[in-house]
Write a structure and sequence with these properties.
Keywords: Hydrolase, Magnesium, Manganese, Metal-binding, Nucleotide metabolism
Structural class: alpha+beta
Protein name: 8-oxo-dGDP phosphatase NUDT18
EC number: 3.6.1.58
Cofactor: Mn(2+); Mg(2+)
Bound molecules: ligand DP6, magnesium ion
Helix content: 10-25%
Family: Belongs to the Nudix hydrolase family.
Distance between the termini: 35 Å
Low-confidence stretches: none
Radius of gyration: 21 Å
């Protein structure tokens, strides 16, 4: 992929899209990564934050034995064969009685590659709010509560931060609207936009195996990568080409997310913005040296692309992961 191909791929990723994953530049040592299968070796969860113009939050009252009567945001585990948005709409309909449309990803949480939760800001588009008369195994009821006085008990307090994220996003959108791109993927993997910046110049790490491309790292489902979280796969790829001990690596967050779900393609590709910088202060005009032939630094010279990338970097204009 000559520079115009790379330019197109980077522009697509910055727009929340991106090419489908053809291969990986880094994978866990040993066995080739096993294809992911929902409800077998990976669990994906969807969760919706509805925040009305009156600053009210939609909560559901849980019916499950282990948390019966407690309140939570509409959320649930994805089922095989559905897209992420279909899962969100199904869970909201089952638990709150409403039809909805997602507005944007607000956050992605992961406890290693086998458990990933997609948090959306969403808006109701119809349906009838579920009352206690329609209580069933999915939920006892749903109700709107002022954000300043949510009901108790809550199933878990992790939703308080998510409600806050929604309120902040409504107040000032820190990133563009980002929704999953429906593209098939067999693995849990991450496409990296690894950047090095120096006085308004930005370089991006490019993989050279095959056509030049934005590098992709496969996440392992083994206990080591589970414990370390998805950042392990990013650090593994960077260690293969950079001397990390004199660099600071920061995983900024998501630019996009690719998943299909239909036709047994349960994998996901997270498009992740990463920065590398030298630990020692002082202006370093050139990016760190790359070991081997499998990667190079591509100086982004196309003006519009460079300014888009610098803007995203300076504003941390990404979907937070585990934050
Ligand atoms: C897993 C949660 O994020 C909540 C969503 O899972 P549910 O227990 O509500 O699953 P469903 O029965 O499919 O609705 C809570 C957690 O501890 O992660
Ligand atoms: Mg649920």
């Amino acid at each position: 992929m000559a520079s115009e191909g790379l330019t197109g791929a980077l522009a697509a990723v910055l727009a929340g899209q991106g090419p489908s994953v053809q291969s990986c530049d880094s994978a866990p040592a040993g066995e080739p990564p096993v294809p992911v299968r929902l409800r077998k070796n990976v669990c994906y969860v969807v969760l919706a934050v509805f925040l009305s113009e009156q600053d009210e939050v939609l909560l559901i009252q849980e019916a499950k034995r282990e948390c019966r009567g407690s309140w939570y945001l509409p959320a649930g585990r994805m089922e095989p064969g559905e897209t992420i948005v279909e899962a969100l709409q199904r869970e909201v309909k089952e638990e709150a009685g409403l039809h909805c449309e997602p507005e944007t990803l607000l956050s992605v949480e992961e406890r290693g590659p086998s458990w990933v939760r997609f948090v959306f800001l969403a808006r109701p588009t119809g349906g009838i709010l579920k009352t206690s008369k329609e209580a069933d195994a999915e939920s006892l009821q749903a109700a709107w509560y002022p954000r300043s006085s949510l009901p108790t008990p809550l199933r878990a307090h992790d939703i308080l931060h998510l409600v806050e994220l929604a309120a902040q996003y409504r107040q000032q959108a820190r990133h563009p609207l980002i929704l999953p791109q429906e593209l098939p993927c067999d693995l849990v993997c991450q496409r990296l936009v690894v950047t090095f910046t120096s006085t308004q110049t930005v370089w991006v790490l490019v993989g050279t195996v095959g056509m030049p491309h934005l590098p992709v790292t496969a996440c392992g489902l083994d206990p080591v990568e589970q414990r370390g979280g998805m950042k392990m796969a990013i650090l593994r790829l960077l260690q293969e080409c950079l001397t990390l001990h004199h660099l600071v690596v920061e995983i900024k967050g998501l630019l996009g997310l690719q998943h299909l779900g239909r036709d047994h393609s349960d994998g996901i590709c997270l498009n992740v913005l990463v920065t590398v910088a030298f630990r020692s202060p002082g202006i370093q005009d050139e990016p760190p040296k790359i070991r081997g032939e499998n990667f190079f630094w591509w100086k982004v010279t196309e003006e519009d692309l460079q300014s888009q990338l610098l803007k995203r970097l300076q504003g941390s204009s990404v979907v937070p992961v585990n934050r």
